Amino acid sequence: MESLNALLQGMGLMHLGAGQAIMLLVSLLLLWLAIAKKFEPLLLLPIGFGGLLSNIPEAGLALTALESLLAHHDAGQLAVIAAKLHCAPDVHAIKEALALALPSVQNQMENLAVDMGYTPGVLALFYKVVIGSGVAPLVIFMGVGAMTDFGPLLANPRTLLLGAAAQFGIFATVLGALTLNYFGLISFTLPQAAAIGIIGGADGPTAIYLSGKLAPELLGAIAVAAYSYMALVPLIQPPIMKALTSETERKIRMVQLRTVSKREKILFPVALLLPDAAPLLGMFCFGNLMRESGVVERLSDTVQNGLINIVTIFLGLSVGAKLVADKFLQPQTLGILLLGVIAFGIGTAAGVLMAKLLNLCSKNKINPLIGSAGVSAVPMAARVSNKVGLESDPQNFLLMHAMGPNVAGVIGSAIAAGVMLKYVLAM
After folding, report:
1. Percentage of the chain surpassing pLDDT 90?
2. pLDDT in tens, 126-165
3. DSSP class of residue 40?
4. pLDDT tens digits along 233-280
5. Treating both helix axes as pointing N-terminal to C-terminal, what angle do 190-197 and 168-182 enclose, rounded to 10 degrees?
6. Would you tell me which of 54, 93, 106, 167 could form a disulfide with 62, CB atoms 3.0–4.6 Å apart?
7. Nearest to residue 169, comparing CAs of 407, 377, 399?
8. In the predicted structure, residue 6 carries a pLDDT above the cut 60
């Protein structure tokens, strides 16, 4: 009987809390969306499975050494940590003190926990190496750069303004998050608001990069919202596009794009480097330079395929490490999901309205539908612009025209992230 009791106690289900049960269901939902509905499967599948691993009771796969120590509730060890932090020797007080402590102090406490015999879980290690260091989003940006053709953007430079206009969604969402905080509805700090705002750029790697720097505690919710809404672009954008354009505007046929020389394609990424967005744009431009130079095809192929696929796996599992109950099941998560869809809507509308504004002072008209491609969900947003255009005129192919603002959106979201990172951290 004692053996049976010991066996039952060793089973995870005996220690399953309500929060863990909910998060297991959330993780299964992400897996279902990835497999059955094919919603961003390359990211949602590893994120969902990482969430499952993170919420296995008693496994601690997503816990750092210090979090494992706190979960163990050893009074003597808690007293040692509390003495270092000058707080009461209980878990709640220690967590509050750690949240206010400098990163150097947090690292000291982590090392102290390791010295006491605790080790970080495998997902926590993945997170530290892949996201904590900022490496994974940068490598993915390099791969995206190697897959990007700047030709449509260079052939019609005005579309750069459409990509810039779509970034209004980012800054409007920052203001929205701060407004919720001002009225006491949901508490968000400025760094958290900035991290949430980047969802409006419809750029998953940028969202992960910025939230990892500014609000790692919200990274799981922000990443899930970003990739979920990117998958829902074909549902979110068309009603907004149709509401803001007339049938006549949707039938506008744009002039044929000129041929862009190889020299232009090589010089553009070199000239694009900006100090505020140097990490993201630097990797993006380096990837594109490998593609356009034509002299390192083997490296370009590796970055576009093998390397980006490997990093995507570990990035997804690392994001899944943040899908734990005490971090995800917060009122802030609901606010993030709400603000995320509003951000997409504002970005889409701003791009369309900017195209209409440009048409007021231009001889060569722009089809306003391509303005919605200014959000940087590449190439999905461009395909949506093309699809809505074909509904009004089956012979009006807008895909290549829409790729211009789509690429501009990638550049714009990276610049917005760099600017927010610089100024928010300086405050």
Report:
1. 62
2. 999 999 888 999 999 999 999 999 999 999 999 999 999 9
3. S
4. 888 999 999 999 999 999 999 988 888 888 888 888 766 667 777 888
5. 140
6. 54
7. 377
8. no
Which one-letter amino acid corresponds to residue 293?
A: S
Cα separations in angstroms, 244 against 350, 356, 393, 422 = 10, 9, 17, 35
Q: In terms of C-beta density within 10 A (0-12 exposed, 13-18 middle, 19 or more buried), how is residue 355 classed?
A: buried
Output the six-digit token pair for 72.
């163990």
Tokens standing for residue 62: 């997503």
Whether omega for the bond prior to residue 379 falls within 30 degrees of 0, making it cis, is: yes
In Å, what is the CA distance from 174 to each residue of 167, 190, 349, 351, 412? 11, 8, 17, 18, 16
- The one-letter code for the residue type at 205 is P
- pLDDT above 70 for 174: yes
Q: Which residue in this structure is represented by tokens 């150097």?
A: 104
Cβ-based neighbour number of residue 125 at 10 Å:
17
> What is the phi/psi pair of residue 243, to 5°?
-70, -30
Half-sphere CA count of 40, side-chain side, radius 13 A: 29
Residues 6 or more apart in contact with residue 323 via CB below 8 angstroms: 23, 26, 27, 47, 50, 51, 54, 55, 220, 224
